[in-house]
Amino acid sequence: MRAIEQLLLIFRKFFYFLFDGCSADGPGNAGILLFLKKGKHMHSNRLKITAGAAVLLLALFTSPSEAQKRNRNRDKDTSQITTSFRLEEESLAMEGMKYMMMDEPSRALPVFEKLVKSSPSDAAAHFMLASALIKLSKMEEALPHARQAYEADPANQYYAQQLSEIYTKQKKYAEAAKLYEGLLSQNPSSIQYGVELAAMYVFNDQFDKAIATYDQLEKAIGITEEITHQKQQLYLRQNKIDKAIDEARKLIAAEPDELDYRIELAELLIANERIDQAIQPLEEALRLNPDEAQAHVLLADIYRRKGDVEKCNRELRVVFSNPNLDAEPKVRVLSGYLSMLKTDKDRKEALSLAKQLTDTHPRDSRALVLYGDLLVQKGSKTEARDVYARAARLDGSVYEVWGAVLQLDGELNQVDSLLAHSEQALEVFPNQGMIWYSNGSAQLMKRNYKRAVSSLEESRRLIESPEMKLVINAQLGDAYNGLGDHAKSDASYELVLKEDPDNDHVLNNYSYFLSLRKEKLDLALQLSERLVMRHKDNATFLDTHAWVLYTRKDYKKAREILEKAVQGKENVSGTIVEHYGDVLFQLGDREKAVEQWKKAKTMGETSEQLDKKIATGILHEQ
């Protein structure tokens, strides 16, 4: 076995700059020992050569027993130093470690391979070669070298760590656990080895062994938050709720002034439907700090679950008045609170809290969405739409918010807003068919027929719902008609009627446009008759049927239908009254016709020819 002094000569030449207080010739033994002592407290990754801490190789070339023997009798050891470590081997080791420290394991690999070939029984050489292979993610190739190093010196913790690392990455958790068991037996108070061993047990589904390992660590170092939380998670995975709760209580007993532990216990109890038990630790937390917002949040949630609206409101008012508390717990509690609203008073209180929430957190999109939901329930659609739009501007990544904005734009019949909002939404969601549909509908209402066709065709491509495809095809019929592309318009309408022969929108528009074109009048009559048979009192549909009759010069029947239409109480437009005047004129009643034309003018929604009709008393048709 090679002696440490020989190795010191090698590493002093290259690593002297790593140490404090070094001379021109390199560090003294005190400097090296200080570095090694510091190394014990470094992060676990730095305890491996693969992380670049090359100086620790000093510990790898000798077992602990050899080090003790050297310290007891340095002179005797020195006299027994062999000279088998040739200059070539020293040079190879130095060159390979240089590349490892430069984080170039691919260049170190052939050097270490040559070193192993030169000294096939040397444990440290195999360790270094395995280190390079691990860095290159060649675990299968690294395994035999790491195993050979470990078997040559099982007491060397670095060899054991390296081999366990390979086993872990290969998911050989039982083998890795055996190695950590040995390491922990040598160092019973080592948190690193204890945690690693427990992790191996967890990965291998040996939860009881993992818990026993944590218990052993607690005996050595006392109760800690990290270990307690790990044990709780394991107990919960075993559905041992009481033991998880006991762990939480142990943590509180260990640090009775730590308020957060009481909050954690309450959350654990609530999560496992033990809400009555959760009240006590929350009240204890509030005795420690009456302003602890999270305790009020959890109490509000408990009272909500219990249906105690008054106590829930009391806690919520405390929470919502605290500007330092994040919006997230407020939104969460208020969202749950909405499910228990029963009276108008409760809903008014919730709306007030939501408004307070948006005032306190004006840039929180979740708070705005919640407020918007409550405004919709109240029936304040315009205000709700504006609040949703604010939320979308703050965070446009939520599709449902854009959907709510567009839906309310449509319900409010605010076409300009629908057009603007749909275009903004498409910048974020260009593959959402419903947004394309909203945009196409708005373009159609603005009579931008070409853009309407483009958007509606895209929506038809993206939407799979058969019901929505009927709606889209109906609107495409209107848009193509607006472009004067009657073949595509008729084809779109026919697609709808094939699946839904009684579609009111298509029966009305298709028959009316055919009458205006004076084409396929038999079909137009058939469609309009089907429509009024279904809706005998709808003024708009009666007008469509009458106009088909008018186009077919059946003026008497048209007058009969229109007289019924103009006597209706709803949907009587200027267009219907103007049509009635046109029919009267065709039947020779000029005076009454002018009277109806004048009436139509006061109502709006009339043809461009109306003023000329009134001025001349003569029917002028386009």
Outline the structure in words.
- The protein is mainly alpha-helical and 622 residues long.
- Among the domains are: 170 residues, Tetratricopeptide repeat domain (Serine Threonine Protein Phosphatase 5, Tetratricopeptide repeat, Alpha Horseshoe); 50 residues, no CATH class.
- Helices cover 74% and strands 0% of the residues.
- It has 36 helices and no strands.
- Helix 13 packs antiparallel against helix 14, helix 21 runs antiparallel to helix 22 and helix 23 runs antiparallel to helix 24.
- The protein is elongated.
- The relative contact order is 0.02.
Based on the model shown, name its key terms.
single chain; 622 residues; mainly alpha; Serine Threonine Protein Phosphatase 5, Tetratricopeptide repeat; 36 helices; disordered N terminus
Summarize it.
The protein has helices at residues 4-15, 29-39, 57-60, 64-72, 74-79, 87-101, 105-118, 123-135, 139-152, 157-169, 173-186, 191-203, 207-221, 225-237, 241-254, 259-271, 275-288, 293-306, 309-320, 327-338, 344-360, 365-378, 381-394, 399-411, 415-428, 433-445, 449-462, 466-483, 486-499, 504-517, 521-534, 539-551, 555-566, 574-586, 590-603, 610-616.
Mean pLDDT: 83
Radius of gyration: 42 Å
The description of the largest β-sheet is: none
- Head-to-tail CA distance between termini: 112 Å
Instruction: Please give the CATH architecture of the domain at 1-170.
Output: Alpha Horseshoe
Helix fraction by DSSP (H/I, runs of at least 4)? over 70%
CATH superfamily of the domain at 1-170: Tetratricopeptide repeat domain
